[in-house]
Design brief:
About 30% of the residues lie in helices and about 25% in strands. By secondary structure, it is of the alpha+beta class. The strands form two sheets. A four-stranded antiparallel sheet has the order 3-4-5-6.
Length: about 140
């Protein structure tokens, strides 16, 4: 069965939703499409510090490190470069369309990273996630 056929099969699950929690009819909430699973894979990758994962110390990104740098005109470029670097290395099936660095109007010290993407299976369908770079909230 091809990956596209798996995506179209309503009886097949791709992976786990994050954060892991119980589901009403399964052991854990699960994803049904590669695009849906990609959101969780990007979140997991970008919110994991490089060096944090046991047995895979190179997995992750420097996003948490970057948000503690001086907020200036260079910060959005540094964040975009790091997102693109990490995703191209660890999630090569994901096409990044856009990376935006946003701030909270009520708190200029709070940085959000919005990533718009597609997968090679669904190259015409874009999804977006917004990560709170302080890691208190994630929006799908």
């Amino acid at each position: 069965m091809s990956a596209l056929e798996t995506d179209l099969n309503p009886n097949t699950y791709i992976g786990l939703k994050l954060p892991i929690k119980n589901s009403s009819n399964l052991d854990f909430d699960m994803t049904k499409t590669s695009l849906e699973q990609s959101k969780f894979n990007i979140t997991n990758l970008l919110l994991t510090n490089t060096g944090e994962r046991v047995y895979q110390p190179e997995f992750g990104s420097r996003l948490r490190e970057l948000i503690f740098e001086q907020i200036d005109e260079n910060l959005p470029n540094k964040i975009e470069e790091e997102v693109r670097r990490a995703v191209s290395r660890w999630l090569p099936y994901i096409n990044i369309q856009d990376v935006q660095t946003l701030s909270d109007d009520g708190n200029k010290n709070k940085v959000f990273v919005q990533v718009s993407f597609s997968t090679i299976l669904n190259s015409d369908t874009y999804q977006s996630i917004t990560l709170d770079a302080g890691f208190t909230t994630t929006t799908y």
